[in-house]
Amino acid sequence: DAKTTQPTSMDCAEGRAANLPCNHSTISGNEYVYWYRQIHSQGPQYIIHGLKNNETNEMASLIITEDRKSSTLILPHATLRDTAVYYCIVRVALGGTSYGKLTFGQGTILTVHP
Amino acid sequence: GAVVSQHPSWVICKSGTSVKIECRSLDFQATTMFWYRQFPKQSLMLMATSNEGSKATYEQGVEKDKFLINHASLTLSTLTVTSAHPEDSSFYICSARDPQLTDLSNEQFFGPGTRLTVL
After folding, report:
1. How far out from the chain centre does Cα B65 lie?
2. Model pLDDT, residue B51
3. How far apart (Å, rounded) are the C-alpha atoms in residues A72 and A64?
4. Which of A17, A102, B65, B82 fits a 20 to 30 Å CA distance from A57?
5. pLDDT digit string (tens) for B25-59?
6. Could you give the 3-state DSSP secondary structure of residue B34?
7. pLDDT computed for residue B105 by the predictor
8. Which residues make Cβ contacts (< 8 Å) with residue A63, sequence separation at least 6?
9. From CA B74, how far away is CA B33, in angstroms rounded?
């Protein structure tokens, strides 16, 4: 699976949008971009995923560049409860030999402050 | 969404003893479960992939004789840390996938984790 690069940490004011970047310049054509987050001392939580189109759900939006070499996770109105480590992961989905395995990088520590 | 539970949520044991951690899928059948380990201020590291009814596949560097994995049913996988030592103290997290779900976003669900402290 392709590796990802994320900033170590970011800050965001409560109520503002949090934009978390991820670089995945070696992504392959059959690899999806997944985002998970981990609140302190809990298991990871799925946020969103995409292949090449922008995606939006009740938690966040995912913007993937046209060349798919980078993406941005957007939390439109960050709250204090969004403080967590955010992981950007690229991996194949159906049919790949690494199907099901998630390789976690260091992630971005997002701190939302009042 | 689907729920994965772990038991116990935390455990303290003496060096040299064995500790069993359970991972259960509560409302779906998980043919595949994954075990991760996370040291303080570090990311999750995959230890092994557990398939129901067959032997687990361990990642490079993980001792299969020390970390015994059993996936005897479609809703339960266990990780036994044998002869635990202080360096085994860590946060152990399992995840499970339901192959019946075709929605990629619901593919894998994580448990809440088990904090192991070996004295």
Report:
1. 15
2. 85
3. 7
4. A102
5. 998 888 889 999 999 989 999 999 988 888 899 99
6. strand
7. 59
8. A54, A71, A72, A74
9. 9
